[in-house]
C-alpha cells in the first residue's frame, strides 16, 4: 500500500483509541509497517473518556454470561501481558435495602459460573474496603 508521500505500509489502522493503538503495536511488534490514522488526537474518543477500570465482567454475569466470560478472560490476559498497567483494586456491587436480597445469591452464582470471583460481605466489611459507601 502506498501513501501520498510514497511511504510503503503493510497495514493502515483507522482509529487511535485503545483498540487501534493496541493493534498497531501488535502489528509493529510482528515486523509490519503500520500507519495509524486518527481523526482527532490519540485517545480522545471513547478511550479518553473511560474511567480507567478493567472490568471483571460481573455486571454481565446474570444477563449475558457469554460476555461475562469474555470479559474475565480478557481481564486475565491483560493482567498477564501488561501487569505494569494494572493496579488490582477489586470492586463492590452494593445491595440496597429496597433490592431483592434473593438476587444477591443469583448474582454470585452467575459470577462463579462465568469464572468471576464473587462473595457476599456484610456492610461493616464493605465500609472497611470503601469508607465512602
From TrEMBL:
Which GO terms of the molecular function aspect are on file? glycerol-3-phosphate dehydrogenase (quinone) activity
InterPro entries tied to this protein: FAD-dep_OxRdtase, FAD/NAD-bd_sf, G3P_DH_FAD-dep
Record has GTP-binding as a keyword: no
Give the record's keywords alphabetically. FAD, Flavoprotein, Oxidoreductase
Statement: the UniProt record of this protein carries the keyword Coiled coil: no
Q: Name one GO cellular component term.
A: glycerol-3-phosphate dehydrogenase (FAD) complex
Per its UniProt record, what Gene3D superfamilies does this chain match?
FAD/NAD(P)-binding domain
Q: Name one Pfam family in it.
A: DAO
Required cofactor(s) = FAD
Q: Which GO terms describe its biological process?
A: glycerol-3-phosphate catabolic process
EC numbers: 1.1.5.3
- Entry superkingdom: Bacteria
Domain FAD dependent oxidoreductase, first and last residues per copy: 10-131
Q: Which reaction does it catalyse?
A: a quinone + sn-glycerol 3-phosphate = dihydroxyacetone phosphate + a quinol
Family from the record: Belongs to the FAD-dependent glycerol-3-phosphate dehydrogenase family.
Q: What is this protein called?
A: Glycerol-3-phosphate dehydrogenase
